[in-house]
Amino acid sequence: MSLKIRMTRGGAKKRPYYNIVIADSRSPRDGRFIEKVGTYNPMLKSDREDRIILKKERIEHWLKMGATPSDRVHRFLTAAEMLPAAIRREQPKKSAPKAKAQERAKAEADVAAAAAEKPAGSAEAQA
Length: 127
Known about the structure:
Helix content: 25-40%
Number of strands: 5
CATH class of the largest domain: Alpha Beta
Number of domains: 2
Oligomer: single chain
């Protein structure tokens, strides 16, 4: 059984509220969980203290037991100085522009660079 520290969604439609829970990684998002270790209310302003509430000692216990946090929960734990900052992932290749779009962008950049050089050269010739 692999444990995850993740969020379950609650609240009404268009008014989300999340519980931060310890759950088996195979259970559904809003399904059965082992323990509730915090809350997150995205509707509150980011400077409010009660936007994110964490039970730090219980989270540390579960981290020692081998629970891995989800990406968003890892950010919360990093902000609370419970974990080191995550290494930023590179942009996936799937979302990078295709070959033709890259060639077109390069050609446009070359034309813009040539246009920038030409007026500077002609101004020197006139002077």
